[in-house]
Amino acid sequence: MMEADELSAGRSWASASLRIASETMTPDAIGELLHLRASSTRSAEGDPAFSVWMLDSGLDPSAAVEDHLYILIERLSECHEALRTLTETAAVEVWLSLSPGPRHRSAVIDHRCLAAFADLGIDLVLDLYPQGKPAR
Question: CA nearest 14: which of 54, 56, 68?
């Protein structure tokens, strides 16, 4: 997480995480299927009740946007079949949160990165913040 003085300086930041929301599988079952350990999990009661399994990029928020995405692609490289199975019954998305710096008003997500997520059946969610605003 970026410090308050870094945010007030208007620096750009980014974070990315794979998020799997399932009404039928527990977070432990999702992790076992993927052979990956979640960065965090949570369960939501209600109608319908569901579980959320998340894997963060683990990179510093100052790292380039595309680096956050490519590290997730690398971590998921052995999970093609498991992810395809999950997409049949769960919401499987990569959340890319970002805030531009004073010199940047856009971010490029290259076609190879988009193709890799498409090949895995993963949707990309853009979670944009005004310059210098922290993520929730």
Answer: 68
